[in-house]
Amino acid sequence: MSAGNIEITLNVEAPDVDIDTLRDLVMSVLDRYDATDATVSISIVGDEIITQVHQQFLGDEKTTDVISFDLSEAESENERIFDLVVNYEMASRQAQQRSHDAQAELALYITHGLLHNLGFDDIDPADAEKMHKAEDEILQTAGFGVVYAARPKES
């Protein structure tokens, strides 16, 4: 897989974001799940833009961390196209609350969105546990450490 299949665009002021590291993360996720043929476009945005996208496509007026779209044609098994919109401002806030850097939180959001595109789901508790375990394994391997599991459990 070449990095040419991965486009990451910063649409928000984010001085602490290392695009090359995020590109390497995306390549490792795709490689892990035999999806190196995929084309991935990631837009890193702020609250305002992701809220507009969330409202337009999902009918929800709240901000969110990541929205992922699988733009692949149903008839074409050979062409996978994934489009992610990722919220840097939320990542920065959450990272500060959880005492890690925004890059690690952003990496979690990107990994989460890609896993959705690759068939993972987190609606059912058992599926969510499987997905979050995969996220932490991926992020540890990529050098970010355990990002998701470090969160407090929701009750």
Helix content: 40-55%
Mean pLDDT: 91
**How many domain units?**
1
Structural class comes to alpha/beta
Low-confidence stretches: none
Q: What's the total count of β strands?
A: 4
Strand content: 15-25%
Shape: globular
GO cellular component, one term: cytoplasm
Keywords: Cytoplasm, Endonuclease, Hydrolase, Metal-binding, Nuclease, Ribosome biogenesis, rRNA processing, Zinc
Pfam family, one: YbeY
Family: Belongs to the endoribonuclease YbeY family.
What does this structure look like?
It is found in: Cytoplasm. By secondary structure, the protein is an alpha/beta fold. The protein has one domain: Collagenase (Catalytic Domain) (3-Layer(aba) Sandwich). Helices cover 45% and strands 15% of the residues. The protein is built from five helices and four strands; from the N terminus they run E-H-E-H-E-E-H-H-H. A four-stranded mixed beta sheet has the order 1-2-4-3. Strand 1, helix 1 and strand 2 form a beta-alpha-beta unit. Helix 1 packs parallel to helix 4, helix 3 crosses helix 4 and helix 4 packs across helix 5. The chain is globular. The mean pLDDT is 91.
